[in-house]
Here is the input.
Amino acid sequence: MYLITDYTYRKAQEWGLTIKPSTNPKKKIDVFKNGTKIASVGAIGYKDFPTYVKEDGKEYAEERRRLYRLRHKQPSLGERLALHLLW
Here is the structure.
């Protein structure tokens, strides 16, 4: 089970979203707008920015963030939400 970080809660608040642990066992978080679920994001098997910072340091996390953004130049809704909330 993924523990949602303070970083992700803060980002969700900035975007006017609510997040909860995902009901989908393959995803990290469920994202809600005005009480309506709009997406499940973040694959469980992959790290995200706050996890990289904690485990590998900020410099390495910044590089992983840069590479993530390069891979997702035209993101879907779920990828955009993951980009804003997890990266």
User: Anything to note?
Assistant: Helices lie at 6-14, 49-56, 58-71, 77-86. The chain has a mean pLDDT of 95. Residues 64 and 70 are 10 Å apart (CA to CA). The first helix runs from residue 6 to 14.
